What we know:
Layout lengths: L3 E10 L8 E4 L7 E8 L7 E9 L7 E3 L2 E2 L10 E4 L8 E13 L4 E4 L6 E2 L7 E9 L3 E10 L1
Antiparallel strand pairs: 1-6, 1-12, 2-7, 2-11, 3-9, 3-10, 3-12, 4-8, 4-11, 5-7
Amino acid sequence: MARSYGLVGNYSLVASATLPVMNIIGTTAVRSKIYDIIMGSDAVADNAAKFVFQRCTTAGTPAGAFTAVAIDPGDPAAVTTCGIALFSAGPTLTANAFALQWAQNQRATFRWVAAPSKELVIPATAANGLALMSTVVTAGYNAVWAIEFEE
């Protein structure tokens, strides 16, 4: 049975970017699968943004790392790694390889839950993963998210 992990984070977006908001990077040991995404904002402004999960083949250089929390506290630590912006060097993005895209108003909450066996899969290949990109931001946007994945 797969082990499940959660990550939470937030980041203030000021403009459309070519660097990720965050990324999730797999290893050769597991095929990580994102199955639940919740994103919203704790600000009251009326701004819009467009987000995509884009495939990447390197991790880039994030400003910091997330430690995924095991949903079942009896599970071992995750081997999947997660980085957060500001990235000083972006990952190598795979052109036109968008696993999921959505538009969102800052006053709304977005939730995506995978249909059974339709998760966003990260291959069991070193340094491959998914980068969360903000491709359009109309004004300052404070993104707050919770992502759950399994290994």
